[in-house]
Amino acid sequence: MDECEQDRIFSEAIARFGPALGRMARGYEADPDLRRDLEQDVQVALWQSLARFDGRCALSTWVWRVAHNRATSHMLAHRRRNAAGWTSLDEIELADDAPSPFEAAESDQAMALILAIVDRLDPPDRQILLLYLEGVAGSEIADVTGVSPVVVAAKIHRFKARLTRRFAHEGDIA
Amino acid sequence: MTAPDDPLARLWQSGEASLAPLPLEEVKRRAATFGDVVARRNRREYGAAAFVVIVFALYAVFLPGTLLKTGSVLVIAGALFVGWQLARRTSRPNPEAEAADVRAFYRSRLVAEEHMLARVGGWYIAPMLPGLLVFLAGTATPARFGPIAATLVVAVPALLIFAGIWWLNHRAAARLRDQIARLDAPTSFEGEN
Q1: Contact call for residues B76 and B52 (beta carbons, < 8 A)
Q2: B42: which chain A residues are within 8 Å (Cβ-Cβ)?
Q3: Are A100 and A163 in contact (CB under 8 A)?
Q4: Where are the domains of chain A?
Q5: Partner residue opposite A138 with nearest CB, options B1, B15, B41
Q6: What's the whole-number average pLDDT of chain A?
Q7: CATH number listed for the domain at residues A1-85
Q8: Nearest in space to A23 (alpha carbons), one of A106, A118, A140
Q9: Looking at the domain that runs over A86-174, which CATH code has it been given?
């Protein structure tokens, strides 16, 4: 791929996925200054990687892979600060009296609750959850993350069940 | 899988986070100097190695006695070896690997770090140990105790410190092995749906 084409695809990717990449960065880094560094690193990594993009997978799959891999490297590099609290989705328990995001949907607590869960997840589960929150289809999440679609579906199901227990009881979400 | 009207996704996407795009020329400039990122990340370690080299070079020149001079030279050699190993072993951004699926990429990072930590005795402790022991023997010799007793008095704390470094790194490597095993294990979700 010549550099003009690389530049064109990069610009297209940033235009299409820029806001989503910003939210992804927030899902990996809470500190604003470090998050800005991560966002810039992701853009550089994406431009570099596109020199080898051959269209055998969707551009979105490529972008998500590069972005999450660079974010995972960022996570590992700052592990001393954060790792003690990492866990898998299976091990996260919400307090019974914690509001669901839907109950708190009209307050600033809603996003904080989701971020509090995201910030506790180890990289494999965090990747799946962030892609789900971006509305990426399960089959593409499987392509990006390298786990089976069955596992992706089960993880998402479990995540939704944990977050929306009481909401689900009322039959508003399945 | 995630419907456009999924309330969780809608809530997430309504957040204020946004990406500040870098100008393309800036992206290219940073891409051209990406090795600098690694150098910056390791600056503290390299700075410590440089400090050791400078201090022990001065010792080698100005301190009296064969043991002190020999120990200083061995410490310098050990610090240079450790610095080289650090540069060689530190994982650096690899644009090719970053296009792999994220599970494979994450696993490869964990494996590389586990190897580095589990082998810390060989590439970090062993190269520094001979020089420090010889140097400490040199400092102990003029003491009022016998040279062997004095050497033990000054060497034991140093050995304990190295043992602590070895233990902490092996404990961290064991944690990484647990994470790798968890990645490799068949998940309990298989067959649930």
Answers
A1: yes
A2: none
A3: yes
A4: 1-85, 86-174
A5: B1
A6: 82
A7: 1.10.1740.10
A8: A118
A9: 1.10.10
